[in-house]
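User: My collaborator and I are trying to settle a disagreement about how two of our proteins should look. Neither of us wants to argue from intuition anymore, so we agreed to look at predicted structures for both before our next call. Could you fold the first one, then the second, and keep them clearly separated?

Assistant: That sounds like a sensible way to settle it. I'll keep them separate. The first protein:
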Amino acid sequence: MRASLPESTSALLSPFRLGPLDLPNRMVMAPMTRTRASGERVPTELMAQYYAQRASAGLIVTECIAVAPDSAGIIRAPGLYTDAQVAGWRTVTNAVHARGGRIFAQIWHCGRASHVSLQPGGTAPVAPSAVAAEGSIFTPEGRQPFSVPRALDASEIPAIVAAFGVATERAREAGFDGIELHGAFGYLVDQFLQDGSNRRTDAYGGSVANRARFLFEVVDAMIAAWSADRIGVKLSPSNRFYGMFDSDAVSTFGHVVRGLADRNLLYLHLMEPNEADLASGTVQLGEVAKTFSGVFSGAVIANGGFDHERADAFIATGQADLVSFGRAFVANPDLPERFAAGAALAAPDPATFYGEGPTGYVDYPMMRT
């Protein structure tokens, strides 16, 4: 059990030792897709400015970064598989470090959450099974339903696992302080884990152990490429994004968290259910961090609509060590300073969350002092 802090102390604003890193506070800037990379998925100077503005966070975790050309499902999302992309990310990490910050790369493969128009050669996206995601995706031709994916042959899986290992090596080369595996929100890792999207009958499907095999192989490749104390994993046991579900989420994710604990990873980033998830009536885990914080051996980061008061309570009661914030960091680049001062928060403009250019990206003002 994590030690509680005195009520007079802001737990959120207290320092924390995260593996090899000394954090000035327990506030994490959550990964948020912003679509400001170039057409070749290369990080830009504008992105360096954006992340550097938010360097007072205890830790920054970047937007999702593609590990291979066919792994992305978002227009202008960055990659980490070419030399130009590594150089672009080095500009970002240098800018953050120059401001005294710490930054992790979040890597992903979108799997079925994509569209043929976003795939090299217009091919079908891949997934554990040929089951389309629910909903729609923004494509060069506007919003369209997700494409029906092609089920991966078992012989193709080792190459995808290896791509995560290579991306980890490239993240280290680009100057990141560590790396987070995106195992949440209905993307490829999550698609293998949950039996609503994984209908396989081979070594990667069926039992919980088989469905978790892909995740553990990816994590092991990442550890081999760097070290366990530089790696975190993000999971969303209760989120219903893109029609995700599991018939026994408690057992599935309990097995996953125990396996990750055995690997001595740096942290586990856990997503609490949102209002839509809870309204669906299918959520089995209404208190995700509380369920798993005692199972995992490393640090726990909680995410899910937190304000300062609720974040303090989560940390002080031992449900999490750190709390990540998304939209609040979009509109408040100096969010830790605002919390410390008890200052009002600026409101984000959702119309500018995605797009191009500086508007709604690097033009939110700092707090007046």
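The second protein, kept apart from the first:
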Amino acid sequence: MGYWKDKVAIVTGASSGLGRSIAQAYAQAGARVVIAARGAEALQQAADELRAAGHDCLAVTADVTQQEDVDALVARTVEHYGGLDVLVNNAGRSARRAVLDTTPEEFRDLMELNLISVVRSTRAAVPHLLKRQGHLVNIGSLSGKIATRYMGAYPATKFALAAYSQQLRLELGAQGLHVLLVSPGPIARDEPRARSAQELAGLPPSAAQPGAGAKTRPIRPEQLAAAIVAACEQRQSELVVPRAARWLAALGQLSPRLGDFLINKAT
């Protein structure tokens, strides 16, 4: 098991989907995992699955939008395992809405979950991560590099997360903190997220799908999770999946008009 043996990893939003796969990947690599989510029943099922596979797992019910829950999550982890090596800020959600139909309140609410909760969790965990030259993993999105149509407030929150991740790298990298920003395309889901008629009103049918109609194959969460674990071990700064999207983002920076044209063709 090597590098990850007995290291301690917190994964938020870990009761299902990508978060659950990330927790499994760290556990399979030898880490002791702390999984956190709001829903106690689904979280316990995820913990039972990990333990049945022989892994060391602690489940902590927590709402990352609440400071007291975040503080309790980190404190319980350190008390139970004696330290912390990895924090994966995975909790978050996407959105669907034409941008002018997205209210300031909807922007604020999504920013609270997708960015401010990351700030909360990071501030609570970094003192412990620095003691072990540990890893901070922020789960962003291709929408944090390439804004697409009909995603409401989501791209703005993920662009902000990318900037925050870079600030952390610049300010704390020399102190030993590894920061990894993960920017994936659409993630495959066993059950597509149900979206309200209000959220989808006036949008084309493709906007209801993962990636808001992106012409790419959805990424299997277990494959992305394995790539995240490997990227941490190599102390990479970014993980963009699919890799070709990095070129599209770079072209958009060099020529916004060309970037917009290519994005419209690709979605």
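Some points you might bring to the call about the second protein. The domain at 2-266 is CATH 3.40.50.720 (Rossmann fold). The first strand starts at residue 8 and ends at 12.
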